[in-house]
Amino acid sequence: MRPLLSIQDLSKSFVLHNVGRTVTGCSHISFDIMPGEFVGITGRSGSGKSTILRCIYRTNLPESGSIVYDSAAFGTIDLCTCDERRVLYLRKNEIGYVSQFLDALPRQSAYDIVLKSALETFGVEEAEHAREQTEAMLRHFNIDENHWELFPRTFSGGEKLRLNIAAAMIKRPRLLLLDEPTASLDNASKLKVRELIEQLKGQGTTMLGIFHDLEFMEGLCDKEFNMQKGMMA
């Protein structure tokens, strides 16, 4: 069996033009993720963990190295060098990303944010099923039904994060990237996230997650890597 994702000698730095400095994001990172695995990355804030995820998702363009992904649509593809059209396709259909921050259109309701993801997964021809799944996901994360038609700018940080996770997980992606998905959640909400992660893992979703909450990761991860100063320790 070949890896679903193989990262080799990945490096990324950032130039701070206002102070004339270059900051290392990550340096010479190499590891593989097999299909269906849950891999966790730990380390202090600023150690470069999120940089790796953003390079995989291509919100950061890597400087060197390769990120070889075994795509269902395109076969083996290097995410560092493939064209933007394929990157956008993979984000829509194969690779999910949960960040700590909600990225949504200004006048889009909480319900519509999750429904949009559901329709991308199930198709317009299954709109009724998409709505059923949207409502089930919103209820799972305890988003008050009275809030479904509200714009999430009025939500608390924890509510926004739960909404973000709901929109990503409803797509059941082949590869799911999790950047501190429990950062601002209470214990009850963390358990909701864990329950869905376990469900996705049981369905074969491959996951790469960043966590500070080591207790949350216990029993979930197949492999764990620790980062220090941009490098694997």
Describe the protein.
It is a single chain. By secondary structure, the protein is an alpha/beta fold. The protein has a single domain (5-232), classed as 3-Layer(aba) Sandwich (Rossmann fold). The chain is 34% helix and 28% strand. The strands form 2 sheets. A 6-stranded mixed sheet has the order 6-7-8-3-9-10, sandwiched between helices. Strands 2-1-4-5 form a 4-stranded antiparallel sheet, with helices on one face. β1 and β2 (21-33) form a beta hairpin. α3 (110-122) packs across α4 (127-140). The longest helix has 16 residues, at 187-202. It is globular. The model has no long low-confidence stretch (mean pLDDT 88). InterPro entries: AAA+_ATPase (IPR003593), ABC_transporter-like_ATP-bd (IPR003439), MetN_ABC_transporter-like (IPR050086), P-loop_NTPase (IPR027417). Belongs to the ABC transporter superfamily. One of its GO terms (molecular function) is lyase activity. Keywords: ATP-binding, Cell membrane, Lyase, Membrane, Nucleotide-binding, Transport. It is a peripheral membrane protein.
Strand order of the largest sheet: 6-7-8-3-9-10
Percentage of residues in strands: 25-35%
User: In the CATH hierarchy, what is the architecture at level 2?
Assistant: 3-Layer(aba) Sandwich
Mean of pLDDT: 88
Provide the CATH top-level class: Alpha Beta
The separation of the N and C termini measures 27 Å
* Proportion of helical residues: 25-40%
Shape: globular
Per the CATH scheme, the topology name is Rossmann fold
The structure class reads alpha/beta
Assigned CATH superfamily: P-loop containing nucleotide triphosphate hydrolases
Unreliable segments (pLDDT under 50, ≥5 consecutive)?
A: none
